[in-house]
Amino acid sequence: MSFAPGQPQVRAARPRRPARAVAGASVALAVLVAGTVWALRDGGGARDGASCSPRTVASWRPDPAVTGEFARYGDDTSRADDWTGGDGTHAVRLPDGRVLWLFSDTFLGEVRPPPNPVGQPHAWREMSAPAVRNSGVLMSASGTLERTLPAPLFPDPLPGRWRWPVAAQVEPRTVGSAERVLRVLLWTRDPGRSPWIYGVPAATEVATLSLPDLRVEEVVTVLDQTSVPDPAARVLFGTATVTDREWTYVFGGDDGRSALGGRANAYVARVPAGRLAEPGAWRYWDGRRWGARATPRPVVGDGRTQGVGSAFTVVRDGDTYTLLTMASGTEGLTSVAGYWACSPTGPWHGPVRGFTPPLPEDAGGGRGLAAYNPRAHPSLGGGGGLLVSYDVNWLDAAAGVAHAEVNRNVALYRPRFLRVRLSAGE
Questions:
Q1: Is 134 a member of any domain?
Q2: 115-129, 226-240, 391-405: which is most confident
Q3: pTM of the model
Q4: Where in the sequence is the domain holding 267, given as residue range(s)?
Q5: Which tens digits make up the pLDDT trace of 360-391?
Q6: Which positions ≥6 away from 109 have C-beta within 8 Å?
Q7: CATH number for position 283
Q8: Which of 59, 81, 90, 323 yields a CA-CA distance of 20 to 30 A from 132?
Q9: Residue 184 lies in a domain
Q10: What whole-number distance in Å separates Cα of residue 59 and Cα of residue 89?
């Protein structure tokens, strides 16, 4: 390791030494939402609609260069304490041009070259390979992955409770300050039994990291949901952020509904730009107006034809908002769907035409695999379209099956990348 972060100051919970993470994936569904031509009522943040129009996916193609860079870095045997696979892929470009990639459940350790012990021609790792609940990997400004930060980057807040990083962005340390820091939104989760095999939603937090050394300074709880008795009704924010003039819009979902086999809903909060780490600055959309009370109403999701998963992504194209996710229903782990709106609060339109991301052909032609967690990375321009990542994992999470499969073929549990071109039209 090149450096070790200092002990962070944590509000509302004293950090403890993290336990070894349970290996496996945090499989979550996701939804694609885009902006519409309608103006918003009651201060919802809409514009006049002059440059807002429907969005749909016009075309897409794999990006082998970025996908291959993660394969190269993960297979590198020169170190035994760095990233070899992970999901929950998020990226943020830092002021000096570097890119920080954030991951949820992560494998570390050593990758061994093929053939693996059962004779299949894949790079593999030992079943005893260390795993942590989150990690950060630094990429140079030129696009080369260079090193893994000491992992886990965000320590467990309580025994048994863990943190998954979601959206991140650079902000002034305080409003008007010339000094910049990195704010990372975190989901905290508690252990749970089936159907909560990926944990019970607990709270949304915001971490502050110093720049350029990325030392975790402080973690603040902005929305505690442990008092909500029904875990399926708990809302976690931070699956995506979009800054539009003086506001940062923070999207979230009641992802517990996905754990129960249903469609989740999307919600939105807004924070004055530069104040993500101030719980009192957050305002939640209640269906009519922005309020300080955390009683949000869904902006996407009607329990029938519309819905989102726990990990959707939102970008702004002109005055049109676009969100990407895995489709609901029978295509939920194969196809990406889309929605569009002229304001973060809607009305949202869709689902519209999306696409089906490819699964690895050298793993049974994709049988038994799931694609999930589509994420847009607008700060990584170039390449002829919007860079979108998605994660791949084994569907059967029971009795360590997924753990065994992703260790037998390390290429399965790594992000894959596409270039997606959006165009006007439904």
A1: yes
A2: 226-240
A3: 0.86
A4: 9-424
A5: 876 555 567 888 899 999 999 877 799 999 99
A6: 80, 81, 84, 125, 126, 129, 130
A7: 2.115.10
A8: 323
A9: yes
A10: 22
